[in-house]
Protein: Transcriptional regulator
Amino acid sequence: MEKVYRYNEIASGIAAQIRDGILRSGDKLPSVRMLCKEYAVGMNTAKRVFLELEAQSLVEAKPQSGFFVSNRRVERLPLPAVSKPSLIANHHEPSELSTRVYSSIGRGDLTLFSIGVPSGSLLPLAKLKKEILYATRALKEGGTEYEPLQGNVKLRRMVAVRSLGWGGNLHEDDLITTAGGVNALSFCLMALGKPGDTVAIESPCYPGILQLVISLGLKVLELPTHPVTGIEIDALRKVVSKIDICLLIPNFNTPLGSCMPDAHKKEVVQLLAASNIPLIEDDIYGDLYFGTQRPRCCKSFDTEGNVLWCSAVSKTLAPGYRVGWVAPGKYKEKLLKLKLVHALASTSVIHEAVGNFLKTGRYDRHLHQLRRTLQHNYQHFIDAVTEYFPEGTKTTRPQGGLAIWIEFNKEVDAVKLYELAMKQKISIAPGPMFTLQDQYQNCIRLCIGLPWSDELKFKLKQLGNLAKMM
Amino acid sequence: MEKVYRYNEIASGIAAQIRDGILRSGDKLPSVRMLCKEYAVGMNTAKRVFLELEAQSLVEAKPQSGFFVSNRRVERLPLPAVSKPSLIANHHEPSELSTRVYSSIGRGDLTLFSIGVPSGSLLPLAKLKKEILYATRALKEGGTEYEPLQGNVKLRRMVAVRSLGWGGNLHEDDLITTAGGVNALSFCLMALGKPGDTVAIESPCYPGILQLVISLGLKVLELPTHPVTGIEIDALRKVVSKIDICLLIPNFNTPLGSCMPDAHKKEVVQLLAASNIPLIEDDIYGDLYFGTQRPRCCKSFDTEGNVLWCSAVSKTLAPGYRVGWVAPGKYKEKLLKLKLVHALASTSVIHEAVGNFLKTGRYDRHLHQLRRTLQHNYQHFIDAVTEYFPEGTKTTRPQGGLAIWIEFNKEVDAVKLYELAMKQKISIAPGPMFTLQDQYQNCIRLCIGLPWSDELKFKLKQLGNLAKMM
Structure:
């Protein structure tokens, strides 16, 4: 798969030490020469390590003295606490709040901290255009014909090959393509759930999932979720007899950005398999890791075919293409039938184009760049939040994905903040969107997928000032 | 909209007289000179009338004598009788037969009389490729961004403009785009039905609709249907208190090809509105009329917003593009919400390309050509069926669409015929696919969307011989 450069590997290790507080603000870093010895690398590699850390604003060069951990690191905002939803299944309609927030999609006059997709300026637009052109030429009848029911073979093959990167071992025949990620989740829930069934999810949770579950006549059970390690397994164990389906975003979920450790993933998969409760795993952010290592998926611990692994290119390449897929394990026949009956086929041209983009390695090169940009953005966002947001602000420290989750003091009302911010042309996602219960009133989600700029920094300052006034 | 040439209008009138038996085999037609006088047209127009009728194999020129109605017209197969399903709601799974038949999609080694789409060779492939290229250039961020929730504005505007052609008066804001026609029907049924509800449909009925209704936990009530005029309104009146939704393909439905007269449409719309039963109108074949006049839609008689009018380009332009739409009347908010929750958006690039193809008039020019081709194909198919199929064969006489429905003598078992034909690389759609009841065992559907050729004729001869042997 993708080549990981040695300098990048070393830089990530040092960055982790800085973030974890092992190296502290003002600490001197080893010299270039010492680095060469310590890691057995050449001068050029060692120099690139420092350039990389500098680009991430983690270190600063001082003339004649070498590199030091940046001063700005001195403040380190605390993490939000583990969420504590009540363990009761809800089936009432989600508030209209998220519909209001999402209606801002495409509004060029707003700064859209609310929309969880990478900005177009971070995407390989020219290459994608060419890929579409090639696809119209390569496909029989220019792509006007129906695809095979399971979906574009090239795309499925490449998704299968890439599964090795997260500990999976998929075959193209294990996969079914869908019209984007939401469509994959929709088919999974339709295949597995019957009205009145209960679906366990993370809390806070992506509003689209809340709406989807409720729309199908299913109930939502929100699980306590740790901002770093994901759902609390003890809580899941307690409710396992009351639930019918579990739907998680184990890797860099939105809004928390938590990533379940491998041991947790394994335990959850085994726990659910023992009760024959299917796990729908939404891995749509899995490729957006900031470190050097792609996190594993729950699917990689699945020996029973009980995990339905879903993903898409909507968060990494092209939201508007509607290209997603699912590896539905033992539920494959059910999913295939649903696709036949409710969709018939995917859009041949676009799925071929994405399949080819993956095949030629362009996707990996793009992801490499996108991950770096998002990691830098993340650092800038955290710096701005640290500098401008009111005392008592807590924030998540995701190691990947597109979002950070801010918890203000209890005085800050996120919905009011949303309304005040909209008057200043700033759109944020207020906490109550992410739950069916009365919670997260003082929380917001910020999307880090916008290209960093002084204007963005200024907007975050404005947002911080609004929060301070509350 | 589209220009209808005078010669074409006159030819259609004469063709109708031939088909209706007013002009009979061997009858002499008026001379070119007489035609000029009668219709007040020039010589060139009159000559083109005869060329057109000749192209349709309806008339033959005899040297020095003029034009005569073709001899082959002498035999005229009778129509199948009105269908007589029992008026009981069914909710069992459709047979696996249609899954088997549809699994042949894309198999180049078969003659696919079974698949109801126009062959790629009848589609404007080069122009469509260009249109896609333009779309990637015209759209912001190359179409990687999400569309507005309701769908591509250009496409909705053009579908609205074209609604004038069928007596409608839609505005772009009345329309929501979908990923193809099936997706539109799926959203409508999801929005309107709850498990256990009963949906009245035509019988025989498109298998995809049977599967869709059953898949959502709804029941199917099959209505007696006339091969020319569609559902029997008296039957609908009898069951109206037992049904919750009505789903019809009033224009050139598959497999019968029936087209409800305007008066019937109006009556059905009023009958259903009086009982507050929504009508889902699938108009996917409406543009494929053989005559000069596009048939009206039920939606054009809808004063209450009770008709959900659905269509797509899957039967006319590009099955693999997945471009459809719905005008859901008073159910618009429900439909919009379903689209948000289950699909989020359509594929921006392809929907823009189709929108533009409609806008530039290319779609109308293509349809004009496609209709002529299908009309000629229809004539060839009927001729071959008349010539090669066993005594006692009955056939529909659709005035548009993509299918003819054949009723054999009771001795012919359509499923066995399907299996025998497959051994000779011929795929047909056997009657039992089109119902949940025990009927149509001696019926098949033939799709006329393949380009006519001697080979096709030979395949129909083979098929006829197989049926004769039974």
Observations:
- Chain B has a mean pLDDT of 93.
